User: What shape does this take?
Amino acid sequence: MKKPRSLGSLLDDIISRRKWTNKFDLHKVFGFWPEVVGRDVARWAVPSIIRGRILWISVVDSVWMQQLYMQKMLLLEKINERLSGSGFTDLRFQVDSNMIYSDYYSTEPEELKDRESSSKDQADFRKKLDNHLREVFRHIKE
Assistant: This one.
């Protein structure tokens, strides 16, 4: 009987065999977005979808869209510095009328690092990771 392998090990094998490493790397932006734009901006503008090497960002209104558009090249540079692969070629912004306020990035990264993890925190993290991985793989298949 073979020894069970960890989920991470299996995912690494699948990603490398399918040559998805660069595509998978691009999705890291969802994790470090608030560190690039700041927590306050991340509440009003969030990365929503990746098409090819273009990152689409949903914003709450046209004012935020204009503000971020004026900083587009700086944002693109900051994002690509954090990626190990090829990076994004463009950022595109769209107003999302359903978006009022995003709670998704409401916790500062420093607060997350200092927090002791309880079993409930770990279960919550696993659930969020599972949902995120489903979304990542859905985008990769496209």
Notes: The first helix runs from residue 7 to 17. The chain has a mean pLDDT of 80. The CA atoms of residues 45 and 64 lie 7 Å apart.
